[in-house]
Design goal:
mainly alpha; 12 helices; 0% strand
């Protein structure tokens, strides 16, 4: 019931924010570009599963590739019901444990994905600052960099110190919290050992995984670009990537499950500076449908059907 309701809300939003004449464009929407958008919308499953397979092999866990695909899909489904910043890491870790991966190693594999994303956003953030500061692009009129710098300063200089103060002043007084911290410290030690191993002899593995991560992010921006081309809207590919980056960056701080509604609002506000008012609503719905609702629907079908087949095969082997 939750998914159809969200789709309905987006359809209504698209209807009231799009000029009626624009809907006629759907009759001439390019099937070619729609097919490309569809493929790129599902491509993150491929890159995600390959990353899981690479790290499982590195940690000496022989998990079949098709099962890593199922883990990737399950992780995305988990991300759809949790805040974007948390993502599907808990589901991915749980599914890896069910495949015989040690808890510390499963958490390590989830954390390495977080490290890759953090490194990606850090590098691209610095790159965007350099590019936009040295460019006469119209994006400078859209993106006021001082607000970006202020928001980064806010999280580093305000949120983190306040969290530390609250812990020292109140939480550290409770024994159960100290026991939890001791358990967590042991877990961190095991995970740290895994990271040290990567630093010693897994640099190439990390580079390969990080490259797949870059591709995974790039295809998300390509979906936006091909969707616009399919609607007959010709825009700069570079500007599409830059605005798309800001959309996904903002989504990290949206607390709703899967960044629902907040993602649409972020896309609408950010891309309305580049797209006309009579089409932005339609593009917003198309983007969210191809990158979230369609993935979610197909993911549920594939996840449940493969799970049923797996249970059936297990019962037959007994």
């Amino acid at each position: 019931m939750f998914l159809p309701l969200l789709v309905l809300v987006n359809i209504i939003f698209s209807f009231f924010t799009t000029d009626l004449n624009t809907f006629y464009k759907l009759t001439s929407f390019s099937v070619y570009y729609f097919g490309i958008s569809l493929l790129f919308g599902l491509a993150p499953w491929l890159t995600h599963s390959l990353k899981i397979k690479i790290w499982c092999n590195y940690m000496n866990y022989k998990i079949p590739y098709l099962e890593t695909v199922r883990i990737a899909i399950g992780s995305d489904l988990g991300a759809a019901i949790s805040p974007t910043a948390l993502g599907g890491s808990p589901v991915r870790a749980a599914m890896l444990i069910s495949e015989g991966v040690k808890p510390a190693d499963s958490i390590f594999m989830s954390l390495i994905a977080t490290v890759e994303d953090t490194l990606y956003f850090s590098i691209t953030f610095i790159g965007l600052l350099i590019f936009l500061n040295g460019s006469d692009s119209q994006l400078l009129q859209i993106l006021d960099l001082k607000y970006i710098n202020l928001s980064l300063f806010y999280y580093l200089a305000v949120i983190i110190p306040i969290s530390i103060y609250i812990y020292k002043a109140f939480l550290s007084r409770y024994n159960w919290i100290q026991e939890l911290i001791n358990w967590f410290s042991t877990l961190i030690s095991d995970i740290s050992t895994a990271f040290k191993k990567v630093y010693r002899d897994g640099k190439l593995i990390f580079l390969l995984s990080f490259t797949l991560n870059l591709i995974q992010w790039l295809v998300k921006y390509i979906v936006i670009y091909t969707l616009l081309l399919g609607l007959g809207v010709h825009v700069s590919f570079l500007d599409t990537i830059i605005l798309g980056w800001f959309v996904y960056f903002v989504m990290l701080f949206i607390p709703t499950p899967g960044a629902v509604l907040g993602a649409e609002a972020a896309f609408y506000i950010i891309f309305s500076s580049m797209l006309s008012a009579n089409i932005i609503g339609l593009v917003t719905f198309g983007w969210r449908f191809l990158t979230f609702y369609l993935q979610l629907t197909l993911g549920v079908i594939i996840f449940l059907s493969t799970g049923a087949i797996r249970i059936k095969n297990t019962n037959l082997s007994k």
